[in-house]
Amino acid sequence: MKSNQDTPLLLRKHRTEEWIGRGYTTICVLFLIVIIISIVYFVATKGISTFAINNVSLSDFLFGSTWSPDDNKFGALPFIYGSFLTSLLAAVIASPLSVCAALFMTEIVPSWGKKLLQPVIELLAGIPSVVYGFIGLSILVPFMRDTFPGQGIGVAAGAIVLSIMILPTITSIATDALGALPRNLKEASYGLGATRWQTIYGVIIPTVLPSILTGVVLGMARAFGEALAVQMVIGNAPHIPTSLFESASTLTSVITLNMSNTVMGSVQNNALWSMAMILMLMTFVFVFVVRLLERRHKL
Amino acid sequence: MTDTLRTENLKVYYGEHEAVKGIDMTFAEQSVTALIGPSGCGKSTFLRSLNRMNDEIPGSRQTGNIWIGDKDINSSETDVTVLRQKIGMVWQRPNPFYKSIYENIAFGPKYHGIKNRKQLDQIVEDSLRKAALWDEVKDRLHTSALSLSGGQQQRLCIARALSVNPDILLLDEPASALDPISTSKIEELIGELKKSLTIVIVTHNMQQAARVSDFTAYFYLGSLMEYNETSIIFTNPSKPNTQEYISGRFG
Ligand SMILES: Nc1ncnc2c1ncn2[C@@H]1O[C@H](COP(=O)(O)OP(=O)(O)OP(=O)(O)O)[C@@H](O)[C@H]1O
Ligand SMILES: [Mg+2]
Question: Where is the ABC transmembrane type-1 domain (chain A) (predicted)?
Answer without folding.
Answer: 80-294
